[in-house]
Write a structure and sequence with these properties.
Layout: E1 5-6, E2 11-13, E3 22-23, H1 32-42, H2 62-78, E4 82-84, E5 88-96, E6 99-109, E7 113-114, E8 123-125, H3 135-141, E9 146-147, E10 152-155, H4 161-167, E11 172-178, E12 185-192, H5 193-205, E13 211-215, H6 217-231, H7 236-241, E14 246-253, E15 261-262, E16 265-269, H8 273-283, E17 286-289, E18 292-295, H9 301-317, E19 321-325, H10 328-335, E20 340-343, E21 369-370, E22 378-379, E23 383-384
Parallel strand pairs: 7-8, 8-13, 10-14, 18-20
Antiparallel strand pairs: 1-6, 2-4, 3-22, 5-6, 5-12, 6-14, 9-23, 10-13, 11-12, 15-21, 16-19, 16-20, 17-18
């Protein structure tokens, strides 16, 4: 059976240091002060900050920002901000509040991925993809020389046999530094091609029932959409090896002891707070703490679906909008703002994850998170996605 995993040539920072890596663009969407601090600290230093469009700024001069990102990528290659490794994989070790999360950086074949409901595939989304969120991400990828992933894919290995075997081998350390804004520490090790072949073979055997996108669902969906654009102008022969057909991702064992599922809370903004609270509590029994509601619902897909359904019904008849918040403290803080209400959800059980994806099903959007905002994947490694 042909594998959906490829061994890439990965770009890493020429000078690995804390200013290089920044957190995923879909974090701290309601906390612009976070991104302003990062921008000030990074300044003009080499950093992936120059290659991303934080969602906190979406809708504000997007086209101009995207053009600047594309220019920055070319300048970074010209000024040798990065070095290209020989063909191989990268093992990452990321310190978090729950321990050391280990992952394997490799490429996936986007021809083997889908987010369509009811379609069974080797690689699939874990949650509903909101197509309205894709255009800005596709626009950023369109014309970009490089990609820097924050996508994490789960595989199943209850005994963690693959990772224990990898760790038994001697590997070259590529980088080892603390991350910005309390993101913990990041280490990377190189797995050369001769060893990478065995890793990919073993990894592929663990994609049962599938490899599922645990984090970065919209980024992978955008990469797929962009590939479909590129693909339409290529011959069959060109399609087989074009760099845009593949995407760099991090594979993480769902049974890694550091992997914990956290809820993604809802923040309803620009509403009559008391009116919304009255409406929501008529349908779901809740405990109230200030302007934060804690529904008496078990964690997981049904609770998320019910919560989102009620929010959508209310907003259809009234003004307001919804945001998605990582972290209990952050939710309570934002809920103190005028005309805002927080809804605190319970975490999903890890064992329910793959069971929910059978027969091509998806979880509702924003059902769970891998850690708090600062524990999400930081942009570090890159890859060329077009011929320049």
């Amino acid at each position: 059976m042909k594998s959906c995993i490829r061994i890439p040539r990965i770009l890493i920072p020429a000078r690995p240091e804390r200013h290089w890596s920044v957190v995923a663009c879909d974090q701290f969407t309601s906390d612009r002060a976070y991104w302003e601090r990062v921008k000030r600290e990074v300044g003009a230093r080499p950093s992936t900050m120059h290659f991303i469009l934080p969602e906190a700024y979406l809708g504000e001069e997007d086209e101009e920002r995207i053009r600047e990102i594309h220019v920055n990528m070319h300048l970074a290659m010209t000024d040798e901000w990065m070095v290209k490794l020989d063909r191989g994989l990268v093992l990452t070790e990321r310190s978090t509040s729950t321990g050391i999360r280990r992952g394997i950086l490799a490429c996936i074949d986007l021809e083997e991925y889908t987010f369509e409901k009811g379609v069974v595939s080797t690689i699939r989304s874990s949650e509903e993809v909101v197509k309205e969120r894709l255009p800005a991400r596709v626009a950023l990828r369109r014309g970009a020389l490089l990609e820097f992933p924050h996508a994490i894919l789960f595989y199943k290995d209850k005994k963690d046999a693959l990772m224990r075997w990898i760790l038994s081998e001697e590997m070259e350390c590529l980088y080892d530094y603390d991350l910005l804004e309390g993101g913990g520490r990041l280490k990377g090790y190189f797995i050369p091609e001769e060893g990478a072949v065995s890793v990919v073979r073993d990894l592929y055997s663990r994609g049962t029932p599938c490899f599922a996108v645990a984090d970065g669902n919209h980024s992978v969906a955008a990469a797929k959409a962009y590939w479909e654009e590129v693909k339409s102008g290529l011959s069959e022969r060109e399609q087989k090896s074009h760099p845009a057909r593949f995407m760099l991702v991090e594979f993480v064992n769902i049974y890694d002891s550091s992997v914990c599922f956290y809820p993604i809370h809802r923040l309803v903004k620009e509403v009559d707070a008391e009116a919304f609270i009255s409406y929501f509590c008529k349908h779901v029994k809740c405990k109230r703490e200030g302007n934060v509601l804690i529904p008496a619902l078990a964690g997981g897909a049904p609770a998320v679906s019910k919560t989102d359904e009620l929010i959508e019904e209310y907003l259809r008849a009234n003004t307001g909008k919804v945001d998605y918040i990582h972290g209990d403290e952050e939710l309570f803080s934002f809920a103190k703002e005028e005309n805002s209400v927080g809804i605190m959800l319970a975490p999903m059980e890890k064992e329910d994850f793959f069971a929910q994806l059978k027969k091509g099903n998806n979880l509702p959007k924003k059902t769970f998170s891998l850690g708090e905002g600062r524990e999400k994947r930081y942009y570090t490694e890159g890859r060329e996605i077009r011929y320049d």
